[in-house]
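Subgroup meeting minutes
Present: P.N., E.W., G.H.
Scribe: E.W.

1. P.N. recapped why we're keeping a running log of single-chain structure predictions: easier to compare across weeks, and new members can see raw inputs and outputs side by side.
2. G.H. added today's entry (90 aa).
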Amino acid sequence: MSWTIVGIGAAFLTMFGFVPQIIKMWKTHSVKDVSELTLFQFGAGSALWMLYGIHLQDFIVIGANATSLAILIVALGFYLRLNRDVRGNP
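Output recorded in log:
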């Protein structure tokens, strides 16, 4: 088995790991069970992994973590918007 295939499989699973959470936030309009710290921590980790991938010039690591970071930014946006709505702020 090629390790590149393993890397691509791992990257695919990691990249889309937060998509089910985003779908749940969208459907329920609730973020009460979502940890803001987890979103920031995972985002920081993805950004650092992306930088590491740039250093290694490894396009799998760069692409996977850039995608993960983009998805986390969407999740964070939903979190901030829905959390603001719950508190009654405009």
